[in-house]
Amino acid sequence: MAITTTERLRTSNLLFFVSKRAAALPALAILAAISLSGCQTASTDNVIRIDKAQGSSENIASLTSVINANPQDPEGYNVRGTAYGRGGDFSRALADFNQAIQLNPKFYQAYANRALIYRNMGKLPEAVADYNAALQINSNYDVAYIGRGNLYRQSGRDDDAFNDYSKAISLGTTDGRAFNGRGVIYQKRNQQDKAIDDFSKAISLSPNSPEPYNSRGISYLAQNDDDNAFADFNHAIDLDNKVAQSWANQAFVYERKGDKAKARRSYQHAVNLDPNYQPARDGLARVGAGS
Questions:
Q1: Could you give the 3-state DSSP secondary structure of residue 253?
Q2: pLDDT tens readout for residues 156-187
Q3: Residue 221: what pLDDT?
Q4: Which InterPro entries does the record match to this protein (predicted)?
Q5: Other beta carbons less than 10 A from residue 239's beta carbon
Q6: Measured on CA atoms in the order 188, 191, 196, 199, is the torsion positive or negative?
Q7: Last residue within a domain, chosen from 224, 239, 254
């Protein structure tokens, strides 16, 4: 008897979602100084968190054997496309999602997965079109609302993004990115209490993600609550010490406290992680390069 894809593999509809001189600055100036985009750190802008093991020859070979056993099953291509995407091979991922959709034009998860590849390739109109297609097939697909909301927010269409995040939330999503994304928009509107509520919900749903901690910390700073902000930034570092924004945010609190030496070290660490992260470069310029 042929081995089905679902017997060999378990895959999530989420695919790659697997599942920022000192104290005198007013609140809005603080937000601008430390990067108002909140969760749009390097890890989020890249969209797909690269995991080379997913694209290893051994893993791909295993997934290919499943496809060979069931060449007409679109799920096999969707799963292998996931592995290619996580491994950073976007062209092969795209080909697999194309094949999955050809085999099943109603495969709304594959449309959303392909949209993520398009977004990571900088093809935003194509990504929006795929999210639209997924939602035409399944108007209750929260992942597509969140993905499209991220694209809208990236394009400056905050009202449209807000509506998409809110729709996903109204559908009962358990994906913390919906709350984090909506919270960032509340934050930009200077509705900090609402932003903090959404970031806290995002943290409850995604406790191991540094993004909502950074986002909530920024709103705490806007309310001059340095202690809670500092705690959030430190926790973001504990979760992932490779995120430049977390170190720059921590440095900003040190700077507000007048501890230039510690601020300098943290800003420098952020710059070492991401030489192009402008809030860290600006902060380092403010406190001085040191000796």
A1: helix
A2: 999 999 999 999 999 999 999 999 999 999 99
A3: 96
A4: Prenyl_trans_a (IPR002088), TPR-like_helical_dom_sf (IPR011990), TPR_2 (IPR013105), TPR_rpt (IPR019734), Ycf3 (IPR050498)
A5: 16
A6: negative
A7: 239
| Angstrom distance (rounded) from CA 94 to CA 207 | 31
Same domain, 234 and 249: no
- 253: its two tokens: 């609190």
Half-sphere exposure of 187 (CA within 13 A, CB side): 33
- On whether the CB atoms of residues 168 and 156 are closer than 8 A, the answer is no
Q: Alpha-carbon distance 260 to 8, whole Å?
A: 55
Q: Could you say which residues of the chain have pLDDT below 50?
A: 1-46, 291
229 with 252, same domain: the answer is: no
The tens digit of pLDDT for each residue in 194-247 reads 999 999 999 999 999 999 999 999 999 999 999 999 999 999 999 999 999 999
C-alpha neighbours within 13 Å on the C-beta side of residue 146 = 27
**CA neighbor of 146 nearest in space, from 121, 107, 172:** 172
Tokens of 225: 């609550």
The parent domain of residue 284 ranges over 243-290
Tokens found for residue 258? 């007048």
Q: Phi and psi at residue 206, in whole multiples of 5°?
A: -130, 65
The residues, ordered by sequence, that sit 6+ positions from 139 with a Cβ below 8 Å of its Cβ are none
CA–CA gap between residue 83 and residue 51 (Å, rounded): 9
